[in-house]
């Protein structure tokens, strides 16, 4: 069997961009990255300064609010990887409209939040789940210095504020709801994978902390310097968490330190 492959979506900026660069440097596998627009520009950003084989990277058009584009990307992956499987996926679309009170909830903003943060990952699961291994699939054995987890892992971007048990401050109504739903998706999809793949595939949720990206821009000044992470550093920590939690940590949400966040 040829080596498996990796998916990072989206990968045009922020954490997704740096996850893709990190995985190109630290693994030998081919990578599918996605962007809504400017595929060549995204590819150039990802490869900039890296001493890697550029043939390992393909950038596909994908917009999580457009299911047809997700289906087209999945179709291209099916053509490229018909005789192997998806070993690692980071599905991390995200947007934030931070409402402080119920009066600030706007239908259009809330709908966009749920479309991108919740329905986006749901549709990515729908179209990319078939690429994960089954119980009978022989797994790739990563080398000791690889960033790859032993089992195929489908990682979804959650957030600490998606935790109902941890909610002591309120606010951020649409964002909290969207991420709480992601935690439920993580659990449900992992149950499906346990049934279809046993210990060969799993799903986890991730919380990267406050990262210096466009999503958190208005909070950069109010976040203590030691709590505001650069995206390159955050990407490395998330890869470490995915590699470290293993099948024992399946179906749950983990922060950048490798500590569990309650649902």
Structural class: alpha/beta
Largest sheet: 8 strands, mixed
Structure annotation, total helices: 6
How many DSSP-defined strands? 10
Termini separation comes to: 38 Å
* Mass-distribution shape: globular
Strand content: 15-25%
Cross-sheet strand order for the largest sheet = 3-2-1-4-5-6-9-10
User: How many whole angstroms does the radius of gyration measure?
Assistant: 17 Å
What oligomeric assembly is this protein in? Answer: single chain
Write the layout of secondary structure elements.
Blueprint: E1 5-9, H1 14-26, E2 31-35, H2 39-47, E3 57-61, H3 67-80, E4 86-91, H4 107-128, E5 152-157, H5 173-197, E6 201-207, E7 210-211, E8 228-229, H6 231-245, E9 253-255, E10 260-261
Parallel strand pairs: 1-2, 1-4, 2-3, 4-5, 5-6, 6-9, 7-8
Antiparallel strand pairs: 9-10
Task: Walk me through this protein's architecture.
The structure is a single chain. The chain has helices at 14-26, 39-47, 67-80, 107-128, 173-197, 231-245, and strands spanning 5-9, 31-35, 57-61, 86-91, 152-157, 201-207, 210-211, 228-229, 253-255, 260-261. The protein is of the alpha/beta class and 263 residues long. An 8-stranded mixed sheet has the order 3-2-1-4-5-6-9-10, with helices on both faces. Strands 7-8 form a two-stranded parallel sheet. α4 runs parallel beside α5. The chain is globular and about 55 Å long.
Entry summary:
The chain is an alpha/beta fold.
Descriptive keywords:
alpha/beta, 8-stranded mixed sheet, two-stranded parallel sheet, 6 helices, 16% strand
């Amino acid at each position: 069997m040829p080596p498996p492959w990796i998916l990072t979506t989206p990968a045009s900026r922020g954490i997704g961009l740096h996850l893709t660069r990190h995985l190109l440097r630290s693994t030998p596998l081919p990578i599918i990255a996605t962007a809504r627009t400017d595929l060549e520009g995204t590819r150039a950003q990802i490869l900039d300064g890296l001493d890697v084989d550029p043939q390992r990277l393909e950038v596909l058009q994908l917009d999580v609010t457009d299911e047809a584009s997700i289906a087209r990307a999945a179709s291209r992956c099916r053509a490229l990887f018909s005789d192997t499987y998806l070993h690692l996926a980071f599905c991390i679309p995200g947007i934030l409209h931070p409402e402080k009170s119920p009066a600030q909830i706007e239908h259009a903003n809330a709908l966009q939040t749920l479309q991108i943060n919740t329905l986006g990952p749901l549709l990515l699961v729908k179209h990319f789940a078939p690429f994960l291994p089954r119980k009978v699939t022989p797994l790739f054995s990563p080398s000791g210095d690889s960033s790859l987890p032993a089992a195929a892992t489908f990682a979804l971007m959650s957030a600490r504020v998606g935790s109902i048990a941890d909610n002591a401050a309120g606010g951020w109504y649409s964002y909290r709801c969207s991420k709480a739903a992601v935690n439920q998706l993580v659990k449900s999809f992992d149950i499906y994978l346990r049934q279809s793949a046993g210990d060969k595939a799993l799903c986890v949720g991730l919380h990267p902390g406050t990262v210096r990206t466009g999503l958190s821009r208005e909070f950069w000044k109010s976040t203590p310097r030691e709590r505001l992470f650069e995206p390159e550093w955050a990407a490395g920590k998330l890869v470490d968490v995915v590699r470290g939690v293993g099948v024992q940590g399946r179906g749950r949400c983990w922060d950048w330190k490798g500590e569990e966040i309650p649902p």
